[in-house]
Automatic annotation (TrEMBL):
Domain of life: Bacteria
Active site as annotated: E329
Catalysed reactions listed for this entry: Hydrolysis of terminal non-reducing N-acetyl-D-hexosamine residues in N-acetyl-beta-D-hexosaminides
Signal peptide, first to last residue: 1-18
Residue ranges of domain Glycoside hydrolase family 20 catalytic in the record: 153-498
Keywords: Glycosidase, Hydrolase, Signal
GO cellular component: membrane
Domain Beta-hexosaminidase bacterial type N-terminal: 23-150
GO MF, any single term: beta-N-acetylhexosaminidase activity
SUPFAM superfamilies the record matches: (Trans)glycosidases (SSF51445), beta-N-acetylhexosaminidase-like domain (SSF55545)
Species the sequence originates in: Aequorivita soesokkakensis
Protein name: beta-N-acetylhexosaminidase
């Protein structure tokens, strides 16, 4: 008995502190050297810090008071067990954390570095230490180690849209506190939009009296027909006192708040309060639905006076060096029809309405600069010429950021493809309704804010990255947390530890730490999503044979599956597929089913063993499955064009060649396109196919993508036309070619007007 117990203890202590097991640090430090032995933190430990490190020292004591029931007593540098030491050799925000058998030493060159050392120390304590009010004083054993750490990027941001839905300051503070835990240093506070103006401006009381409230809110998705509304007045705003309280709280968490005051677009709430700010002067309501609205600020003198007065109240509230002025999604229709706007374009010798937007932003920039601050704008501020000192937030992809960096402007990368946390994170059909898209945890983790298109010099302009949380479809705090966690853990690791250079090696390690981090999130009462126990399936092709591979991201799990209702088996290797197959599977942890039931249907059609080539590659943001996804026998989601089965092409005409290798009888070719005008996705109007015949000749047929009795009003988002390309006709050839012209530039009056349309195509089923 004794012997067995002894052995058990040996095994436990050997495995205790492996980096990704017991020590679940997120973001992962640059270097960690684990030593033997532990250090005990209890109420007898004494503390020394210089005034420069006061925020870090106070945070630690507040944290221990909250979770352990004691504070460390302050003493002299010589006598203290835990000391903060100034070390100018440490990089900005970096630190060394040394835990020996008798002492904890934190070295940093600045207050941020010391603060982040404390966050690391905190993550070495057990999750219970996060929980409030222990009944008795606690003590904790932590491993002896040396951590040397510093951030890869200086800007590590998280955004929250408090305009579409309003979140009170207690929640905003919790959100900010969670950024600090993950060594993120910037909170981008989206305060004004069409659906609500959320910041008190004393000079313009109607902004909040009227503009902070809407009569009702859309329920369900924007694309539902008919649209439904809840009939309930909705709103709220932050007083300047509230803002001061949040700013002070953020300072204690080493977080800078960048406020966003949107202009010239997303201004309907402001114009509803002061109609003279618009081009038409018409009284309009605060918006009750989502999207982009035509009513934007008119660049009149009185509008500039208004905006300067607003900014003059906003700027002193926020210590941030930046003010975000929006700049995105400003439809130019009203400017086109406005006599004042047209005269201004002429008088100022501007090229067009884009030139006018550029004039608008440059004028605001001059004002903001005169107050000692800099502007950030969404990437549309590149159109018509960039304001001289502006920082660009690249969201419609990476290109805006790349262009800005080449023009020597600072950039924050926040592309929809990797950093829009309002997009779906799982193709689980039970996910809460979201705007669309697909950004699972691994996609965020795979993000590299520095594009290969930039050389070393240009890359210096990429200050960092940020994830955005737009809240059209996120009505409450619990859902905010569900969308943010755990994806923010990946963004924190990308921006602090640096982008992964070996995804297949690093991601499993990350996921293991995420799994171990979840009890901490529980202790913090965070409503995180957990898709770690879900399965992922993939078609593999080898020597003309088709296999189906199942994987689950975390270690130590068992997969069991059944094919075409056969007996359930333990999964050990990819499954041979030779006919239409339905696969169901589950993940088991210690014999217990975890996660959700997995199901996949594979159509064993004639394309599955063919070769495919594309005239242009899919946009990197929507290329997850690669070209093979179009002939792998698996259809994409009916709701989520961003999954690994749909391929997205932005503005490109496309030709797809499918080569069967040998003459093949073909009865039909079927595919489908996604049509989501609200998200700039338009099915092509017509497609063509080159058909080969037995005698070696070919012809080309044109196929309209909608039946003639469909008119355009019937083509709404979520409606996915299934297009029979060929039916009832035999051809016998080795190659077919599909010609798919892009829909073109999105017309006025539609979401994304003036931009190139996206084409999304799914499985090409050949029978
Ligand atoms: C944005 O998502 N409109 C910046
Ligand atoms: Zn105008």
């Amino acid at each position: 008995m004794r012997k067995i117990l002894f052995l058990f203890i040996i095994i436990m202590s050997a495995g205790m502190f492996s980096q990704s097991d017991q020590i679940a640090l997120i973001p992962k430090p640059q270097s960690l050297e684990l030593k033997k032995g532990t250090f005990k933190i209890d109420e007898n430990i004494t503390l020394y810090f210089e005034p420069e490190f006061e925020i870090a020292g106070n945070f630690l004591n507040d944290f221990l008071q909250n979770g352990a029931g004691f504070q460390l007593k302050k003493t002299s540098e010589k006598e203290a067990d835990l000391i903060f030491k100034k070390d100018v050799s440490q990089p900005s925000e970096g630190y060394i954390l040394e835990i020996s058998n008798s002492k904890i030493t934190i070295k940093a060159s600045d207050a941020s570095g010391a603060f982040y050392a404390v966050q690391t120390l905190r993550q070495l304590l057990p999750p219970q230490a996060e929980t409030k009010n222990p009944t008795k004083k606690q003590s904790f054993s932590i491993p002896q180690l040396t951590i040397t750490d510093y951030p890869k990027f200086q800007y590590r941001g998280m955004h929250l849209d408090c305009a579409r839905h309003f979140f009170d300051i207690e929640f905003v503070k919790k959100y900010i506190a969670n950024l600090a835990l993950l060594k993120m240093n910037t909170f981008h506070w989206h305060l004004t939009d069409d659906q609500g103006w959320r910041i008190e401006i004393k000079k313009y009381p109607e902004l909040t009296a009227k503009g902070a409230f809407r009569e009702e809110t859309l329920i369900g998705h924007y694309n539902d027909t008919p649209q439904k509304f809840d009939g309930k007045r909705y709103g709220g705003f932050y007083t300047q006192e509230d803002i001061k309280e949040v700013v002070a709280f953020a300072a204690k968490h080493n977080v800078t708040i960048i406020p966003e005051i949107e202009m010239p677009g997303h201004a309907q709430a402001a114009i509803s309060a002061y109609p003279e700010l618009g081009c038409t002067g018409t009284q309009i309501p605060v918006a009750t639905t989502w999207g982009v609205f035509e009513d934007i600020f008119c660049p009149k003198e009185e509008t500039f006076t208004f905006l300067e007065n607003v900014l003059s109240e906003v700027i002193p509230l926020f210590p941030s060096e930046y003010i975000h002025i929006g700049g995105d999604e400003a439809p130019k229709l009203q400017w086109k029809n406005c006599a004042h706007c047209q005269k201004l374009i002429k008088d100022k010798n501007l090229k067009d309405e884009h030139g006018l937007q550029s004039y608008f932003i440059q004028r605001i920039e001059k004002f903001v600069n005169s107050k000692g601050k800099k502007i950030i704008g969404w990437d549309e501020i590149l159109e018509g010429g960039l304001a001289p000192n502006a920082t660009v937030m690249s969201w419609r992809g990476m290109q805006g950021g790349i262009d800005a960096a080449k023009e020597k402007h600072d950039v924050i990368m926040t592309p929809t493809s990797h950093s829009y946390f309002d997009y779906y994170q799982s193709d689980n059909p039970d996910e809460p309704l979201a705007i669309g898209g697909f950004v699972p945890l691994k996609k965020v983790y795979s993000f590299n804010p520095i594009s290969k298109e930039l050389n070393a010099e240009e890359s210096k302009y990429i200050l960092g990255a940020q994830a955005n949380l737009w809240t059209e479809y996120i009505p409450n705090e619990k859902q905010v947390e569900y969308m943010v966690f755990p994806r923010i853990l990946a963004m924190s690791e990308v921006t602090w530890s640096g982008p992964s250079e070996n995804l297949e090696k690093d991601y499993p390690d990350f996921v293991t730490r995420v799994e171990a981090f979840m009890p901490r999130l529980d202790s913090l009462n965070i409503n995180y999503a957990n898709h770690l126990y879900e399965l992922e399936g993939k078609i593999l092709k080898e020597d003309g044979k088709v296999f189906y591979e199942l994987t689950t991201p975390t270690k130590g799990k068992e997969i069991r599956y059944s094919i075409n209702n056969s007996e359930t088996k333990a999964y050990s290797k990819p499954i041979l597929i030779e006919e239409n197959s339905k696969i169901s599977a589950n993940v088991f942890k210690n014999g217990e089913k975890v996660g959700r039931d997995f199901f996949e249907e594979i159509m064993y059609h004639k394309g599955i063993t063919a070769k495919i080539s594309l005239s242009v590659p899919p946009n990197p943001a929507y290329a997850a499955g690669g070209k093979e996804a179009l002939i792998n026998g698996i259809s994409g989601s009916d709701k989520r064009y961003g999954d690994k089965e749909w391929l997205g092409f932005w503005g490109d005409d496309l030709e797809i060649t499918i080569d069967f290798g040998t003459p093949t009888d073909i009865n039909s070719v079927t595919t489908r396109f996604y049509n989501a005008p609200g998200q700039w996705i338009h099915a092509p109007k017509i497609i063509k196919m080159i058909r080969p015949f037995v005698d070696g000749t070919t012809d080309t047929i044109s196929i309209p993508t909608f039946s003639p009795d469909d008119n355009n009003e019937n083509i709404i988002e979520g409606y996915i036309p299934i297009i029979p390309i060929l039916a009832g006709k035999m051809i016998d050839g080795s190659k077919i070619v599909l010609i798919i012209p892009n829909y073109g530039i999105i017309p006025e009056g539609q979401q994304g007007a003036g931009n190139k349309a996206w084409t999304f195509i799914d499985e090409i089923i050949i029978e």
